[in-house]
Amino acid sequence: MTGGWNTALLLLAVCVKVAAWANDGDAVFIREYTLIRRDHLAEEPLQDAIQKPDDSSSRTARSEEDRDTLWDAWGSWSECSRTCGGGASYSLRRCLSSKTCEGQNIKYRTCINVDCPPESGDFRAQQCSAHADVRYQGQYHEWLPVYNDPDNPCALKCKAKGSGLVMELAPKVLDGTRCYTESLDMCISGVCQIVGCDHELGSAVKEDNCGVCNGDGSSCRLVRGHYKTQHASGKTEDTVVAVPFKSRHVRLVLKGPDHLYVESKTLQGVKGELVLDKSGQFLLENTTLDFQKLSDKEILRITGPLGADFTLKVQFSSGADSVVQYIYYQPIIHRWRETDFFPCSVPCGGGYQLTSAECFDLRSGRVVVDQYCHYYPENIKPKPKLQECNMELCLASDGYKQIMPYDLYHPLPRWESSPWTACSTSCGGGIQSRSVSCVEEDMQGTITTTEEWKCLYSSKTAILQPCNAYDCPTWLAQEWSPCTVTCGQGLRYRVVLCIDHRGLHAGGCNPTTKPHIKEECLVTVPCYKSIDTLPVEAKPVWQKQAIELDEEVSVGEEPMFIPAPWQSCSRTCGAGTQRRTVRCQVLLSFSQSVADLPDDECDGVKPVTSQPCYRTPCSGVLDRGKESEKEEEEEEEETPEREELHDWEYEGFTECSESCGGGVQEAVVICLNKQTREAAEQSLCVSSRRPPQLLQDCKTQPCPPRWKTGEWSSCSASCGVGLMTRTVACSHRPSRDSNRTEVLRDEDCQSPKPIPVQACNRFDCPPMWDTRAWGQCSQSCGGGFQRRQVLCKQRLADGSILELPDTFCPSESPPSQQICAKLECPARWVTIDWSQCSVTCGNGIQRLEAVCRRQGEDRRHQNLDPENCSLLARPTKIRPCSLRLCENSLKPNPIILGQKKVYIQWRKGKKLQLVVGGYAYLLPWTTVVLRCPTRNFRKGQIRWLKEGKPLIVPPHLSMTSLGYVKFQQLRASDAGIYTCVAGQAREHFVLQIIGSKHKLSAPVSWLLGGEQQKVRETDVAMRERFQELPVPLNRYDNIVEQLLELKGSLQDEKDLADKTKKNRSTLEDERANSELSSLLVLIADTQRLDEIMHDLSEGGQREGQLIAQLLSELAITQGENNESTLHPPEKAESSTPVPPLSKPSIKAPRLRSPVIIQRPRKVGVVPSSEMTVHVGVPALLQKPIASLELRCEALGNPEPSLTWTKNGKELQYNSRVGLLSSGSLRIQSPSKPDEGLYTCTANNRLGTTSLSSWLQITGGKGRSCVQSNGIGANGPICSERSNSSQSAELCHGQACPLRWRMDPWSPCSASCGGGSQSRSVRCLKGPEGRSREVESQQCLGSGRRPPDSRPCNQLPCARWASTSWGACHGQCVGPSLATQHRHVYCQDINTTKVPYRMCSGLQRPVSLKNCSTEACLLHWRVGPWTPCTATCGRHGFQSRQVTCAHRRTGKATREHHCMWRPRPPSWQRCNILSCGRAGECRDSTRYCEKVRQLELCTLPQFKSRCCHSCKNT
User: Fold this and answer.
1) Distance (Å, rounded) from C-alpha 490 to C-alpha 488?
2) Is 1416 buried (19+), middle (13-18) or exposed (0-12) by CB count in 10 A?
3) Concatenated DSSP letters for 886-922?
4) Do residues 252 and 324 touch, judged by C-beta distance below 8 A?
């Protein structure tokens, strides 16, 4: 190894294990690396490091700079010194010379600049805690870091916790450790290196005040202000300033005696508060607050950014007012955000893609409308960025690409401008305009307009420019000619020219300002010849007028009619005809030549090719020869002087008065100069000699049908695009003389039809208030309020409506609330208060007083005379009242309000509240409160007994001042009989504990009888004492144990349904099973359990079914009110005398649809005279019986009504077939006609259910005898057949008792609010068929008289109501997945809200539905297919534009918003047809005409594709 290398710095990576203590106490080891120089290591030689061969693979190639020096190439970068939080990495190089190399052999860079997880702790603190297992001065210390050492920030200085000892535990910290807490500078090899906010070593880039690295401060605003407290206002606190989320560099100084505190509110609405009572650092919503409390002022600094909205408040104290100054940087929450590149414009062949900008809300993290970003002048919308894309060529065999080799790539969008309009003035300076739009061109050359932002990468071309800036033409008069006479008065002429700015005679001057060209002149020489009295006008050259040239029509790129100049008139005098040629021509731009086209290629009407002409009037004198002219001259010389020079002549006819349908034309009369044969002024001719008027008919052919248009209507809108309309009809007038016009079909008139509608006022409206209709009034009378929705909206030029914030509308918002229903309310009775008790002592009554009131327009109530309410029913309510005991009156006896209930704990719970009077079977370790509600007795004087002796209170049992007994975690020893004693009243309560395996565990003292071999006297005495108690001990143990066994065997809801065998709907089963699993305690009435015990005592195989039926009933009927039973209200023990509670629940029972209970047929000996069959089981009668009862038991709320049908028809009742009081069907002496299918239907307003039984009678001749097991037999049973006479004598003596006969219930008198039902009840005597009605008293021995009336439909009249639907919200990731909500509530007929249970029987309206948001209105918009690039072959294709656009506005957006639907194809093959036989010469592409015009037929590839077009070239 060379000496230079020995003197170089050797750096090694030393692994250090740093323990960061986690919350659970385990140590987490993080591998970190440090860079150590060789002189910092021990003196031992590093043989391993020196002898290690150099790894050339880790070296990079030497740069040109390194080759000129003695250094080798830099090595690869080392592993980062930290795993998070920003570390350092290094690279080494070696000196290749024995001499010393200039420069450093090591360089550094930062790495892994990601934040560490919160649980990892501070990096410097980890390094200090690594020394906790090293003794210092003989003992261990817990070391804490010392930060911001000004002398040596990169040394590891730590402070011992508790003792305050500060030591330097290492000369340098690990690489990547921050030099200072508030800086990104990091320590590398013991030296503090500068790190910029871009995390680059040596970078001086800093964050601006807004927290943006290398920013310009435009993303936030400086806010400063001051505040002065007002102690005189009476407030105790006040708000200084509200600083929004993400603000930075907050500084607040309070001078005075008051104190600061801070409130916070996160974006999720979570509130917090921080009281600043001492100096120090505080943490609130992940934000550090530095607070300094001095004697005369308080200073608060928050570097930020704020993690929530902070409200800085001041708490007033006595003394002078305080002054607060504050300053902070508030972020601009609405910022422009550049979008991703949109999809490429073409799939191949070279296209482009652009970015856009959207307005982003930093608080909500959502994109908002652009108007929010326009609030801030600092916000400059970024220009779109443009880049090329899909540069790969399309299919190599693409014929279009071969024909157009210069069109390799998809052109970029560009500004396309229309031609300039005509100049506003022809001279003197005007303006002209044009429209400029952004267009894009596809590969087929189709140009379509697109959004303007796509062209913003280049400047938009001008839409206005000056024009015709030159001076306007002016009249220029030449010199006057000599006078036309040599003596006397004559005329002189001059030439007046229109001279333009070029000095040329071009026309265009105003004819009204033209100077005159002729004037009179006087020659002072007297005239002596009388023949010269009339001057003779000369015709000099300057008398000619300037001739304006006809405007020449030039050929354009669109086909148009081009007329040639008119030929000369067909006659030299009189009326003649002029002709010209008119051709349809087009200018070919590529060759700059004019081509003739057929006339049908040009639009519009072809100009006329002939017209009448007239030069000079014809005369016989003029037609003669020169000799005649001489003779005329001689004759004129001989004419007397009085003969005039001018005379009248006819010259042609005027234009026809009508273009069709018959018109007239008039002969033109002119005054003619006889000498010059030129027209002269009419005043020169004698008016009396004017020839008569001559008329002739013209254009007599009938007129064709024509379009008749009316006047345009006014625009339907003043802005935001409106419409103007007019009437357009095809009309025809039969003749000229007829004033009638016939309206014909549109097909009879020539196309095109004039448009009847056109757009107008196509510009954006200013933001305006949009008011909706007023809502319903809150009251029907007496003055209420009604509201409406008022929104700020703007109608745009494309017809869409944009909803804006209220601040965009200029004027004040229209009122959203107004007073309504101002009419006075009618008088009504209003209850005010209870009257005084009717007695002064003892028990009396109170009446609820009512007054007659009316509500006025001011919503105030006015008391009226009771006569105004005489037509209304006055409310009468009475309640008992009890005052002090009267003298000499007996004190009422105490009463204990016990409840005859059996409580069975079904699952473990924290706390139960029970009432004395029943039994309880509870699980151990449950907290129980046993209550003894009393009346007429003080609760503090209640005594408790257990098994007849005063209750001994163990540690886990306590008695309260209200007379309760509280068991804190029940134990087996707590079982027993508890007695509540209140004066002479007593009530018992039996408590038993449920042991393991659902068995009851009782105290040893209860186990009496055979279970004990020896009975001591104490046990006998206890048994006698128990027998004296009025309550049995083990009365319901058998039922409870069977219920508990059934609980253990139930697997799921199906097991419960199998055991109960109910005909119940699936919904009811799910409800019962779910309620059973959620019940804490089963509560049964002792009366119901006594019935079950009576049924069980009859024996048979029904025991399991009865227990399962009981369990199901308890689950359904008591599931909803279980909690209220366990926690009875305190009002149950009030002093108001009320009867004992018969039902433990306070809530109304849940409404349920009817259910018919299906029971199996009773097995056992059945009396021969009577038989009972439960509906759902077939009834098979093998021999005659006295009566058959089809029992139908139904549950439901409201109580269902029962109806019977036979074979699908309504059952006809008679004296033999009738209903029992329970709704069951009884058939007396059933016979063969009674066979059939009997169906019981249970119905209430929630639903209907039914169950059927088949009745078959097998007894009699001709029928087999079937045993109960279904097997045929011929034994003695079959020999005992009875005939009809025997069946008639079956009922005699005790077999025909007196009985009640009930008719079916009548329909309820009201559907809600309480009604009644009635029926007829009669007492009958005698056998069926011969029974007669007797006095009702005779049937009292056979049972209580069934009721003949009952209440029904007790629930109050109520209905569901709902508010209007709320706003639609939610993102659309599929069709209609966004939702909107509304509030659904129950109200009575007075529109007063009532509890939901009153409407539970009605169909509840939905409160949630799908809706369509702005995102859901997006769809794929496809453009038309371009023409196919080939007419045949395999190379033709066509494309179309596919964009993601909004359905309503048509605005395009990014494609990923529409990706939840498949994207339609944007190109396809076309015209895949055979191009014919090999020898056939035809064109296979539509560009062959251009190929021929561009003279490309000489190239083979073009000639083969355009054979037909190129064959003649």
Assistant:
1) 7
2) buried
3) PTT-PPPPPEE----EEEEE-S--SEEEEESSSEEEE
4) yes
Cβ(729)–Cβ(706) below 8 Å: no
Beta bridge partners of 614: 575
C-alpha span between 129 and 149 (Å, rounded): 18
Place of tokens 């008293």: 1337
What Rg, from alpha-carbon coordinates, does the chain have? 57
Q: What three-state secondary structure class fits 405?
A: coil
Tokens of 564: 């040639």
Q: Which residue has the tokens 């190239």?
A: 1499
- Tell me which residue of 119, 115, 65, 117 sits closest to 93, measured CA to CA: 65
User: Residue 540's closest CA among 524, 521, 517?
Assistant: 517
**How many C-beta neighbours within 10 Å does residue 277 have?**
11
Helix, strand, coil: what percent of the chain each, to 5? Answer: 15, 35, 50
Cα–Cα distance between 1445 and 1448 in angstroms, integer?
9
1048 Cα distance to chain centroid:
49
The number of C-alpha atoms within 13 Å of 1419 and in the hemisphere containing its C-beta is 11
CA distance linking residue 998 with residue 992, whole number of Å: 12
Q: Where does 1271-1405 have alpha helices with state H?
A: 1276-1279, 1284-1288
Q: What are the tokens at 187?
A: 């320590």
Are 1343 and 1300 contacting, i.e. CB atoms less than 8 angstroms apart?
yes
Q: Is 189 helix (H, G, I), strand (E, B) or coil?
A: coil
Tokens of residue 1309, six digits: 């008198």
Q: Work out the angle between the directed axes of helices 1066-1078 and 1053-1060 (0-180°, nearest 10).
A: 110
Q: Does the structure show a pLDDT above 80 at 661?
A: no
C-alpha pair distances (Å), 1428 with each of 901, 1367, 1463: 90, 48, 22
The greatest distance separating any two alpha carbons of the chain, rounded to the nearest whole angstrom, comes to: 192
Distance CA 332, CA 247 (A): 9
Number of other CB atoms surrounding residue 295 within 10 Å: 4
Between CA 896 and CA 901 the distance in angstroms is 15
Per-residue pLDDT of 431-476, as tens digits, reads 999 999 998 877 667 888 888 877 877 788 888 899 988 888 888 8
CA pair distance 126, 116, nearest whole angstrom: 13
Q: What is the per-residue pLDDT for 1028?
A: 56
- In SS3 terms, 484-545 reads as CCCCEEEEEECCEEEECCCCCECCCCCHHHCCCCEEEEEECCCCCCHHHHCCCCCCCHHHCC
Is residue 1072 within 8 Å of residue 1167, measured between CB atoms?
A: no
pLDDT at residue 1142 above 70?
A: no
Confidence of residue 1239 (pLDDT cuts 50, 70, 90): very high
Q: What gap in Å lies between CA 641 and CA 772, rounded to an integer?
A: 96
**Residue 849, number of CB atoms within 10 A of its CB:** 13
Q: What is the rounded CA–CA span in Å between residue 916 and residue 899?
A: 6
- The token pair that represents 770 in the structure block: 């949009």
Angle, helix 1103-1118 to helix 1086-1097, in steps of 10 degrees: 160
SS3 1231: coil
Contact call for residues 713 and 725 (beta carbons, < 8 A): yes
Q: Is the sign of the CA dihedral 819, 821, 826, 828 positive or negative?
A: negative
Q: What's the predicted TM-score (pTM) here? A: 0.31
Q: So what's the pLDDT on residue 1068?
A: 43
pLDDT confidence band for 219 (50 / 70 / 90): confident
Q: What is the pLDDT of residues 607-647, one digit of tens each?
A: 988 888 766 666 543 443 444 444 444 444 443 333 478 88
Name the one residue in this structure whose structure tokens are 């590891």: 156
Q: Read off φ and ψ for residue 1386, nearest 5 degrees.
A: -105, 135
Query: What is the secondary structure of 128-188 as a DSSP string?
Result: HHTTTTS-BTTB---EEE----SS-TTSEEEEETTT--EEEEESSPPTT-BSSTT---EEE
- Residue 979 three-state SS: strand
